[in-house]
Amino acid sequence: MINQWIRNNEKAALILTVIRVYLGYTWLTSGLGKVTGGFEVNGFLTGAIGKAEGAHPAVQGWWAIFLEQIALPNHELFAFLVMWGEVFAGIALILGLFTNIAALGGILMNFAFLFSGTTSTNPQMVLLTVFLLVAGANAGKYGLDRWVLPHLPRKIAWPKRKTLAH
After folding, report:
1. What's the predicted TM-score (pTM) here?
2. What are the residue ranges spanned by the domains of the chain?
3. Which one, 33, 143, 149, 160, has least CB within 10 Å?
4. Residue 127, pLDDT score
């Protein structure tokens, strides 16, 4: 019943629009601050790796290994991805363009920050983003998705698999 309401109801679409624009504004302002402020991730990554130690680590060991062996050596790439990921997720959410893809990108960044031991507004943003993802197309109903999505192919034609004859 609630699933039907959030996915199809006009009032739900209006509430989702407010949530979507709020999240978009949050991502956009954060991303623009990083783009214009000389964003660097070395300190953040090093701090997150350090939080994996001690009796009650805030960062899980597997995530610290990823940060130490992949993210830290490629810190310029990760800084670029975070800055521009936040900007593009923000723009897309504000405009309601490819809303579900933008929401998925945003929630992945939220979880990466949470895995790195940073709480801040991430839990709140995760919770709000879940509503957008559950709502599907209704989350972008009052946005550009309303005009763009109907022109996209409904079904991707995958090549048929050959089956073995028995």
Report:
1. 0.89
2. 1-151
3. 160
4. 98
